Amino acid sequence: MRMISIQEYDRRTMQLAEPIIDYRKRILLASGSTIHPKYMEKLMEIGIKSLIIEDAKSVGITLDEMIDMPTWIDAISSVEIAFQQVRVGKEIAINELQNTVKTLINEVLQRKAIILIPTSSIDEKLSRYAHAVNVALISLQIGRRLNLNQLQLNGLGLGCLLHDIGKALTADPLQHPEKGFQALKSNREISLLASHIAYQHHEAIDGSGYPRGIKGNDILEFAQICSVANDYENMISKDGIQPHEAIERIMALVEKKYSHAVVLSFTNGIISYPPGTHIRLNNGLFGIVTRIDSHLHRPIVKVQGISEEVDLSEQSTLFIQKVYNDDLGVKQD
Ligand SMILES: [Fe+2]
């Protein structure tokens, strides 16, 4: 199983490893199927840019660090309902969201790290809610590395699922944090801490953020966590940036946008090179990442022409020099 961009899809060699879901959460194409060229247009129309596929190259590669698709879709659904409730001025029914948070915490605790399903792999009408679920997953992963307790993880998860809820009330990007805060604050079942995640998730440590331009420790740690997760998620899902580069971009803004402690916990819980990534090593050989074992940033790779897998965590002189979106890049190099 591996992730590809839709342009790389080749129906002669690839089958879907995960279903494609429409905005009503119905299965458009089941796993195991191939995509007819006519259908490709339809998928592009609804904004699908990434596919999770199986082919000869991905045999034996599993994405164990990825959340199960049905669980992900259920979580997306619960966020969508909350957005609809806020949009029509109803109180958010908090029970379902709390169940979602519990599920997401379990998903995070049972894995050593999280690989995101990009929001570009489902109908774009759901991408806003899928983004919220992904931000919650990354935030919970950070929270766990910061040794937050169960109660704190609950608050963090809920606040992150609802961090952009203000977007249900305004199209103005600069206003959504405050609108969200007001909507959440008025709900007695939602903690003030969770509400402040919505309010502060675009603030920056150096005061250059918005809406208030608050600085340093005035920004709650939960909001700092959400900020890192939010930016990382956008880089992966919206901008199509490779994980190792997204991690580097986050690290580049330590003590400017993000606090050191939060970024350290982030890098300790995220994978630089997900299984299925095509790579070239510094010895000139090409390969594909097959698994993550003891080191999140030093994967196990299958190298061309070598029958045994190479565990980079045991090889102090081998480095990943280049990452390719697909093996087309390898041929052109
Ligand atoms: Fe936001």
TrEMBL record:
Residues 80-286 form the HD-GYP domain. InterPro entries: HD/PDEase_dom (IPR003607), HD_GYP_dom (IPR037522). Pfam families: HD_5. CDD domains: HDc. SUPFAM superfamilies: HD-domain/PDEase-like (SSF109604). This is C-di-GMP phosphodiesterase. It comes from Anaerobacillus isosaccharinicus.
